[in-house]
Amino acid sequence: MGSPGLQFVGSGLKPSRSNLFCSLFPLSLSPDLPGACIKAACSMGTGTSRLYSALAKTLNSSAASQHPEYLVSPDPEHLEPIDPKELLEECRAVLHTRPPRFQRDFVDLRTDCPSTHPPIRVMQWNILAQALGEGKDNFVQCPVEALKWEERKCLILEEILAYQPDILCLQEVDHYFDTFQPLLSRLGYQGTFFPKPWSPCLDVEHNNGPDGCALFFLQNRFKLVNSANIRLTAMTLKTNQVAIAQTLECKESGRQFCIAVTHLKARTGWERFRSAQGCDLLQNLQNITQGAKIPLIVCGDFNAEPTEEVYKHFASSSLNLNSAYKLLSADGQSEPPYTTWKIRTSGECRHTLDYIWYSKHALNVRSALDLLTEEQIGPNRLPSFNYPSDHLSLVCDFSFTEEPDGLL
Ligand SMILES: NC(=O)C1=CN([C@@H]2O[C@H](COP(=O)(O)OP(=O)(O)OC[C@H]3O[C@@H](n4cnc5c(N)ncnc54)[C@H](OP(=O)(O)O)[C@@H]3O)[C@@H](O)[C@H]2O)C=CC1
Ligand SMILES: [Mg+2]
């Protein structure tokens, strides 16, 4: 990680790559980047000079001098909007030496149910914290070059831009303030970040701050009604895991719903702990949705197979939830065979851990993005030069059922 911004300055960017520079470069700057470097690199036209003012303001602010970079959020008013197509092209330029993206298709699930409003596209993704990927995860078949942040961040952005979700639920985010918040806000998203209280990223040398959950929604589609950052408890004890729950109102339909993101405790031996965290989250969501009066979508890396207790709590909750990716199976009852697939020193780890739960009486899943095949994932599994995380993204299109007063 270090000072990735300096790599861009030193990489001999040509004027034709100035767009790339505008969108991607300033957001990777390290607080110790010399001012002279910033000025030299930023004197490339009006757009960049405006960026320079924002950047200079951020770096010179008293907040910046007192707090590490990851706690400093650039003022969104000073950031120019970006055209998603342009950013996608910029990412592709950075990734030109890498193999092409895998093709994934949306599967139509409810073509028979008409909807007057555009669907709500939700993406769930554990993007793999940079510090954990480089320092803790031990992905023994993944070359270190495949994990280089300057390229891996472009693969992550490419995935987001390819599907353009209305709502984005992320786990293991350790580049919120320097990358995702500024870039996604320029794409029209409003973001919220809740770091883990004792993120394992902080144990890694040259880390970029704690990892946590992040929730983004498109401001032109939704109005924020209510937001809660939740530190999960297990049997009344505070834990290291978190969730964000927000009530949003659709600007087109006026209908409200609650969206939540979480990342439960990892590892075997912690099943009862995860179960308790799940119960706490369900209790919080009961309160927020006023006993299931408001439709709910819960995205998460639950770190639990469908056989675990926490999964069963969600499946049988009085919130009337169903897991969207079951609908991809022939009988509509089976989860996919994997949502994460990696090789550690301990061997191959193929598991279904990631879910998108939704209020089954209030929402329809219109389509879901198919998973990567074993052949696409390849023998070295994930992450790889083609795919930036050990977890696959899950993407669903939802619409409200037509009866607003129907049972939730
Ligand atoms: N500084 C301090 O005083 C304290 C520090 N800590 C730190 O926090 C850590 C525990 O945090 P906690 O939130 O409970 O972490 P978790 O056990 O939930 O795991 C943290 C991350 O490790 C990944 N992971 C899962 N399995 C493995 C594996 N076999 N090898 C490597 N990584 C794996 C998980 O990814 P995924 O979800 O993708 O599987 C997850 O993102 C401690 O190890 C310590 O580093 C904790 C308390 C105090
Ligand atoms: Mg992980």
TrEMBL record:
Chain ranges of the Endonuclease/exonuclease/phosphatase domain: 123-391
GO BP annotations listed: circadian regulation of gene expression; deadenylation-dependent decapping of nuclear-transcribed mRNA; mRNA stabilization; NADP+ metabolic process; negative regulation of osteoblast differentiation; P-body assembly; positive regulation of fat cell differentiation; regulation of circadian rhythm
One of the record's GO cellular component terms: mitochondrion
Oligomer and partners: Interacts with PPARG.
Magnesium among keywords: yes
Source species: Macaca mulatta (Rhesus macaque)
Enzyme category, top tier: hydrolase
Location in the cell: Cytoplasm
Keyword Transmembrane part of the UniProt annotation: no
Chief location category: cytoplasm
UniProt function note: Phosphatase which catalyzes the conversion of NADP(+) to NAD(+) and of NADPH to NADH. Shows a small preference for NADPH over NADP(+). Represses translation and promotes degradation of target mRNA molecules. Plays an important role in post-transcriptional regulation of metabolic genes under circadian control. Exerts a rhythmic post-transcriptional control of genes necessary for metabolic functions including nutrient absorption, glucose/insulin sensitivity, lipid metabolism, adipogenesis, inflammation and osteogenesis.
Keywords: Biological rhythms, Cytoplasm, Hydrolase, Magnesium, Metal-binding
Gene assigned in the entry: NOCT
InterPro entries: CCR4/nocturin_mRNA_transcr, Deadenylase_nocturnin, Endo/exonu/phosph_ase_sf, Endo/exonuclease/phosphatase
Entry protein name: Nocturnin
Catalytic activity: NADPH + H2O = phosphate + NADH; NADP(+) + H2O = phosphate + NAD(+)
EC code(s) of this entry: 3.1.3.108
Pfam families per UniProt: Exo_endo_phos (PF03372)
Cofactor: Mg(2+)
Family under the similarity heading: Belongs to the CCR4/nocturin family.
GO molecular function terms listed in the Swiss-Prot or TrEMBL record: 3'-5'-RNA exonuclease activity; metal ion binding; mRNA binding; NADP phosphatase activity; NADPH phosphatase activity; poly(A)-specific ribonuclease activity
